[in-house]
Amino acid sequence: MSTEIAISLTSEVLKKFLRSTWSENFEKSLFIAEREQQTHKQKLETITDWYRSQRLVMVLGAGSSASYGLPDWNTLLQKLLLISIKTDDDEDTKNTAEKAGVLARTFTGIFEPNALISARYLHNYFKKKNPNSKLAFENSIRDALYAGLKSKEDSELLKEIRQFCIAAGRSPNLDSIITYNYDDLIEQCLKNIDVDIPFSPIYSRGMKHERHELPIYHVHGYLPQKGQLTAKNRVVLSEEGYHQQYTEVYGWSNLTQINKFKDYNCLFIGVSFSDPNLRRLLDISKNERGDDEIHHYCFKKRHDNSDVKDKLEKLLYKNNNILDEKTKAQMKLNELVSKLIKLMEKFEENDALSFGVGIVWVDSYDEIPESLKKIRLGV
Questions:
Q1: pLDDT in tens, 62-90
Q2: How far is CA 164 from the centre of its chain?
Q3: Which of 208, 261, 341, 368 is the most buried (most CB within 10 A)?
Q4: Mean pLDDT, rounded, for 286-298
Q5: How many beta carbons lie within 10 A of that of residue 350, not counting itself?
Q6: Residue 18, Cβ density class (10 Å: 0-12 exposed, 13-18 middle, ≥19 buried)
Q7: What does the pLDDT look like over 24-47, one tens digit per residue?
Q8: Angle, helices 11-19/333-353, rounded to nearest 10 degrees
Q9: How far is CA 153 from the centre of its chain?
Q10: Are 165 and 174 spatial neighbours (Cβ–Cβ below 8 Å)?
Q11: What angle do helix axes 320-328 and 305-318 make, rounded to 10 degrees?
């Protein structure tokens, strides 16, 4: 769950903002129509109603696995790039691995290559490096994915999600789980207690679950920690996979997401809404519903004042013209930071609302398990 500012604080954007702080017209021009704001408690009560009416789907992103030390998308690509540099280095010295690590980190840090371009390069690299293996890319991803696994102890977040799953087949219960993660952490968590929780991971066309089983849809692929991978374990990481998702409108993963987004109520956890295919499917589902109501919610961490302040100070240091505008507007640094955070949160709220998604703000990720407990118990 990234908390980084999603828009660039360019000179022109910030100058326009500073010149317009005394007027409400600037803010009003940026956002879609305001709607009546629900309190945090009211939002949780709404989600509780969805759960009790057996319409709730949990949608998990990379943030739900972060506490285990698993890499996010960009870090995973960097790890794979490190492997390619190490194996291509002809120098047989004990410092080769260290040099490769420095190269991988500095290369991505300085040149900031497009993630999809990097993934395409790596996909082709591992295919050529292992011509006799059709799953060379997937096996390499799995190795890199679990290499930094910190602990086999279940996180507080997954333990609370597990509480929703115990009632599978009974009432009230969770309809299903959609996950964009390749890992099997949620499946392992469901196995780690003495209570039998029937579930079925679904990660390829033709796979179905029994009526009494909770379906866990791995819509970008599934790479369990153990066992031999098969053709069904292919993942969506490179451009090829994303192009396939775009062209296969009626592919199983697209249909699954459209169905759940359109006909059920989803709670997004650890999802950033930066995936273009996810945005496309949410748009399709909203258009099919034909209304502008909130049908889903997403947990999102508020922006940290100190982080924003640090970035702003660096920006002002490099741009005297912006500093002059700040002086003319008679704004103190802390006041500017506060207004920028408010502005960014409005950007994010209105972006989510355009898909029919409301935001449940939290000050810390540690609040999410407690909020889930309140939803489950209805307190």
A1: 999 888 989 887 788 888 888 887 665 55
A2: 21
A3: 261
A4: 96
A5: 16
A6: buried
A7: 555 555 555 455 578 999 999 999
A8: 100
A9: 22
A10: yes
A11: 110
Q: Work out the angle at residue 191's Cα, subtended by the Cα atoms of residues 186 and 197, and round it to the nearest 5 degrees.
A: 95
pLDDT of residue 173: 84
pLDDT digits (tens, 9 = 90+) for 176-235: 999 999 999 999 999 999 888 999 999 999 999 998 899 999 999 999 999 999 999 988
Q: What are 346-379's pLDDT values in tens digits? A: 999 999 999 999 999 999 999 999 999 999 999 8
- The encoded tokens of residue 99 equal 């040099």
CA–CA distances in Å: residue 142 to residues 134, 145, 227, 235? 14, 5, 11, 10
| Rounded Cα–Cα distance for residues 275 and 285 (Å) | 16
Phi, psi of 357 (to 5 degrees): -115, 130
Sheet holding 296-301, edge to edge: 199-202, 214-218, 176-179, 56-60, 265-269, 296-301, 357-362
Q: Which residues pair with 361 in a beta bridge?
A: 300
User: Span 109-134, mean pLDDT?
Assistant: 77
Query: What secondary structure letter does DSSP report for 178?
Result: E
Q: How far is CA 88 from CA 83, 91, 108, 152, 177, in A?
A: 9, 9, 17, 33, 40
Cα–Cα nearest to 80, from 102, 104, 103, 106: 104
User: Which candidate, 267, 247, 249, places its Cα nearest to that of 179?
Assistant: 267
What does the domain layout of the chain look like in residue ranges? 11-69+155-377, 73-146
The average pLDDT across 106-114 equals 64
CB atoms within 10 A of CB 147: 11
